[in-house]
Amino acid sequence: MTTLRIGTRASTLAIAQSTLVKDRLARATGLDVELVTVTSEGDTNRASLASLGGTGVFASALREALLADECDLLVHSLKDLPTAKHPGLTLGAIPARADARDALCARDGLTLDQLPEGARVGTGSPRRVAQLRSRRGDLEIVDIRGNIDSRLGRVGDDLDAVLLSAAGLDRIGRLAEATELLGLGFWPSAPGQGALALEVREGDSGPDLTRGLSKLDHRETRLIVTAEREVLAGLEAGCAAPIGATAVVDAGLLLLSATVYAPDGTARLTASHGVTLEPGSLAAQLAEVHDVASRVVDELLAGGAADLVPKGSIS
Ligand SMILES: NCc1[nH]cc(CCC(=O)O)c1CC(=O)O
């Protein structure tokens, strides 16, 4: 009987996400599904992500393993995945998105507004830094790295709070430590945040895996995360750029809103557009998504988005 092998990093979050997909795939196909651990430079190098050479450090070792047939699929956090398609690979399924919001995890149940003046807040994300500076210029922002557990471990120790993805916290069973979920309207999160992407070799999936992928794929999620990621691609920005984007589908209308921040939080630019999704093929709907994302990108560029974001953060 066929066994499907999921290549995964060894971090708590990666194992949690891969196990989630393993269980769903096993249920959907009746096949055996197992995890294969792959180590990457992003796991062993403690240097800042930016200095590791831009986006996708976690993805590259995994992708080599997939291309070498050491596994059959990868489970990525979509927000960590570069927008450019990787040669020979394709996103075979994008399951229904979880909570896209950022979560504040603060000591003593504090919210962002309740943090005392000068409180120390940890994050390694330029978007979160810009958003924090823009709302609370008094805070001391501490650049932190490492996995979710080690970040949470510093709250109440050397930090007053950290910012993390609600979906990531939930997947490792620690969402209860969130003291505030930041609304997407005033605090847009990263393009694709909260969504997983299942990557496979192109044209090489076989009937069992193909069936499993189609059962896990969620079209609405694919449309909204594609819209958000097209903003990144259109601005030629990487996952480290200070850009928030939120797309939703409501009553057949896809709404996309994106905000570009000056890294120091002193300026920001928002553009929003919508499109009525016509019933039809995925390809036709993706074309509509592309149009709406282009309108958002054009408006941001016309407003001077390229000047807000310094070239260095565009990778
Ligand atoms: N860049 C790190 C990263 N990549 C994906 C997640 C969590 C899962 C997700 O948001 O999809 C996280 C942690 C975080 O941002 O707190």
Automatic annotation (TrEMBL):
Which of UniProt's keywords are assigned here? Porphyrin biosynthesis, Transferase
Whether Hydrolase counts among this entry's keywords is: no
Q: Report the InterPro entries cross-referenced here.
A: HemC (IPR000860), Porphobilin_deaminase_cofac_BS (IPR022419), Porphobilin_deaminase_N (IPR022417), Porphobilinogen_deaminase_C (IPR022418), Porphobilinogen_deaminase_C_sf (IPR036803)
Q: Give the PROSITE patterns listed for this entry.
A: PORPHOBILINOGEN_DEAM (PS00533)
Q: Where is the Porphobilinogen deaminase N-terminal domain?
A: 4-205
Q: Does the keyword Nucleus apply?
A: no
Which reactions are catalysed by this chain?
4 porphobilinogen + H2O = hydroxymethylbilane + 4 NH4(+)
Q: Which family does it belong to?
A: Belongs to the HMBS family.
Q: What is this protein identified as?
A: Hydroxymethylbilane synthase
Q: Which organism is it from?
A: Frondihabitans cladoniiphilus
